[in-house]
Write a structure and sequence with these properties.
By secondary structure, this protein is α/β, with parallel strands linked by helices. It has helices at 15-24, 36-44, 56-59, 71-84, 103-117, 131-139, 155-158, 168-184, 196-205, 226-229, 247-263; strands spanning 28-32, 49-52, 89-93, 121-123, 144-149, 188-192, 210-213, 221-224. The protein has eleven helices and eight strands. Helix 5 (103-117) links the parallel strand 3 (89-93) and strand 4. Bound molecules: 3-methyl-2-oxobutanoic acid.
Length: 281
């Protein structure tokens, strides 16, 4: 039986399965979800890893950035996603300020997220500057995914969603961050918005899988925000994004048709079990 990746077995994937996929040369399919319904759909479609991203703040809640996400919010979304996922490994983002302030807060928040969600791991943004927190969380028995390159929680410091690691110095720092995270024990690293050549270099250097978003084809896996790839988030169309459906358009058209039919009193109709009212009522 060949479980990791496209295997037919429906048992829950573990962090080990995700790591083994790199050594087997199997691409890791990661995608975000924020609720049980979409989690069960992406799980059934064969996603290996479901990320409960703090992008929930912008994608679902209409915020400009991810900064407003809270531990309570991530715990709620983590819990309902875990309910919908029977095979995929569920990873919950640690939100802004839940791990940066102190090692103690980082461990407590990560532990509470795992304890109250049923997820299998947490994800933290950053490299060497948070390595003490990463080590302590892993030391407490909590699996961690790293996140380098454009890190949305640092959007103001980075001057917006820009490609990172362009010049050689920045590339070297990013590679060092990846090595430090791998040495600290993360089981995967998300690489966001970096040049494909740097993503390839990092992927070849570290033993843990890299999961890219806007980082080219040579990462060990890819992650996309579900609502972006479904075309629900119509205002967001960076070059790296492929839309696999146009559900925003489909939703608008469906609701407009419904509105038209309600106003014309043509819905509900006979085929929905209702007889048109005759003169006698
Ligand atoms: O919050 C999120 O959705 C993420 C992905 C973009 C990787 O961190």
């Amino acid at each position: 039986m060949s479980v990791p990746g496209g295997g037919s077995a429906r048992r829950k994937l573990t962090t080990f399965d995700i790591m083994v996929m790199k050594s087997r040369g199997e691409k890791i399919v990661a995608i975000t979800a924020y609720d049980a319904l979409f989690a069960s759909l992406v799980d059934a479609a064969g996603a290996d890893l479901i990320l409960v991203g703090d992008s929930v703040a912008s994608v679902l809640c209409g915020e400009e950035t991810t900064l407003s996400a809270t531990v309570e919010q991530m715990t709620y979304h983590g819990r309902i996603v875990a309910r919908g996922a029977s095979r995929a490994l569920v990873v919950v983002d640690m939100p802004f300020l839940s791990y940066q302030v102190s090692v103690e807060e980082a461990v407590r928040n990560a532990g509470n997220i795992l304890k109250h969600t049923g997820a299998g791991a947490v994800k933290l943004e950053g490299g060497c500057e948070i390595i003490d927190k990463v080590e302590a969380i892993i030391g407490a028995g909590i699996p961690v995914v790293g996140h380098l390159g454009f890190t949305p929680q640092a959007v103001h410091a980075l001057g917006g969603p820009r490609i990172q690691g362009i010049d050689e110095d920045a590339a070297m720092f990013l590679e060092e961050d990846a090595v430090s995270l791998a040495q600290a024990g993360v089981f995967a690293i998300v690489l966001e918005l970096i040049p494909p050549s740097l993503a390839r270099r990092v992927t070849e250097t570290v033993s843990v899988p890299t999961i890219g978003i806007g980082a080219g084809p040579d990462c060990d896996g890819q992650v996309l925000v579900l609502h972006d790839m479904l075309g629900l988030n119509e205002g967001f169309s960076p070059r790296f994004l492929k839309r696999y459906a146009e559900l925003g358009k489909a939703t608008r058209e469906a609701v407009a048709r419904y509105a038209e039919e309600v106003r014309a009193a043509s819905y509900p109709a006979a085929e929905h079990g209702y007889e048109p009212a005759g003169d006698g009522g």
